[in-house]
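Protein in question kept underneath.
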Amino acid sequence: MKNKALSFIYLKKALSMIESGDYSQAVDLLQEAIHYNPDCFEAHMNLGIIYHRMQKYNLAIDEFLEAIRINPDASAGHLCLGIAYSDNGQLSEALGELNEALRISPTAEVYTNLGVVFLRMGMLDEALNAQMNAVKLDPGHFLAYYNMGVIYSMRDEHEYAIRAFERAKDIRPNSIIAKVNLGVAYARVGRLNDALSEFQDVLELDPENLLARKNIEILKREIGKQN
């Protein structure tokens, strides 16, 4: 029997469990919310998000499809479905959903994820254009600049990669992944001291980082050869 009030109570409890990181309990509560109101958009969306975080992509896709059935004009539903398709290796389907999300509401987040799909398809020019569109909408979008750096690196355009990674690091100064990739990019253009500085910063942030330790050893040897 449909009971929206009871469904809402279960939904609120589930959201509290999500905040505390208890996904197992949240799944049970969201399923109860859906039992009492099968057309609860928020319950299907949150259940899909949890399944996605648990890497249960097929279950996530099913929930996002239900959410879209309930509200086909919700950009968030198409965005989340597109990301789930992408992570599940269904790239054509991902492209379709993300383009639909763009049609409804073009945001930096949608463009960034669209660029990831293009990157996974090996379409580097399209991937780069998508990230550029993202930063036009949101000049402080860390992930878009980081992805631009990755794409430029794949194209062996290391000076452009450096600029992108530097911008990403400006946005998140303590980002280990930005520092590591910036260090690699510096090394590729012969800026060994700059590269060494980045990996030393990484080691300060994460003393157990084996990649940083290895690169510091290599860079110190190479710098020593030049002196």
The chain has a mean pLDDT of 96. The radius of gyration is 22 Å.
